[in-house]
Design goal:
Oligomer: heterodimer
GO cellular component, one term (chain B): Golgi membrane
Number of helices of chain A: 5
Organism (chain B): Arabidopsis thaliana (Mouse-ear cress)
Distance between the termini of chain B: 35 Å
Shape of chain A: elongated
Helix content of chain B: 40-55%
Subcellular location (chain B): Endoplasmic reticulum membrane; Golgi apparatus membrane; Early endosome membrane
Subunit structure (chain B): Component of the ER membrane protein complex (EMC).
Protein name (chain B): Membrane magnesium transporter
Largest sheet of chain A: none
Structural class of chain A: mainly alpha
Number of strands of chain A: 0
């Protein structure tokens, strides 16, 4: 009885308790920010006239700036709002790539071809 | 509608104006029979300002980050549910006291 009670206490104390609703809210905020900036980066790349790999380099630069902005928004202390630093820095990094290519080609066609 | 949304709309409008300026510039280059190398300086400045405004809007408009720790000040329970008659504490769960330090 004592050992089983101790074991259950250890199990309960080992698992960290997070507020799942707030974690979901934070992840949704990050996804929305990254999606919107992917679209904006695509429009910018199209207007400037980037071709080939320069456009993808531009996308990753904008995503890095977004990561720094999200770090600043979290107050440079990701422990309060997320379970790890990767959530702020790299989550959703490649998710907006298709949106970027879509709006890149769309803006390029509008400005430079038509 | 709040400030973040307005700043985002304004940034998108600036980008639209930059696109229109680039289209005009391309038409001018066609008349002068020259090659396009890069947009003019004012268009680049408009693009940088538009990107900065949209970056600020993307970081403020989707909402604030909420704390995920149950014991932080944001997640304090400030009221009890109405049906207090159904809150029974004398049950078999009292044999396993919880280790969570909840603040009420």
């Amino acid at each position: 009885m004592g050992s089983s009670e101790k074991r259950s206490k250890d199990i309960m104390s080992d698992i960290p308790t997070f507020s799942a609703e707030n974690l979901q809210n934070n992840l949704k905020v990050i996804q929305n920010s990254r999606t919107f900036l992917s679209i904006i980066a695509g429009v910018l790349a199209g207007i400037i006239g980037f071709n080939g790999l320069i456009g993808f380099v531009f996308y990753f630069v904008v995503m890095l700036i977004t990561s720094v902005g999200l770090m600043a928004k979290a107050g440079f202390s990701a422990d309060l709002y997320f379970d790890s630093w990767n959530r702020v820095l790299f989550d959703g990094f490649l998710g907006g790539l298709m949106s970027f290519v879509l709006f890149w080609t769309f803006a390029y066609d509008l400005v430079h071809i038509f | 509608m709040n400030l973040g949304f307005l700043v985002g709309v304004f940034g998108v409008l600036i980008l639209s104006h930059a696109a229109y300026s680039t289209i005009q510039y391309r038409g001018l280059l066609k008349i002068m029979e020259e090659e396009f190398s890069r947009p003019p300086i004012n268009v680049i400045l408009e693009l940088i300002i538009g990107l900065a405004l949209c970056m600020w809007a993307a970081l403020t408009f989707p909402g604030k980050f909420l704390s995920i720790h149950p014991d932080s000040d944001e997640n304090r329970a400030v009221f009890l549910p109405d049906n207090s008659d159904f809150m029974i504490f004398n049950h078999r769960g009292r044999l396993f006291p919880p280790q969570i330090d909840m603040k009420f």
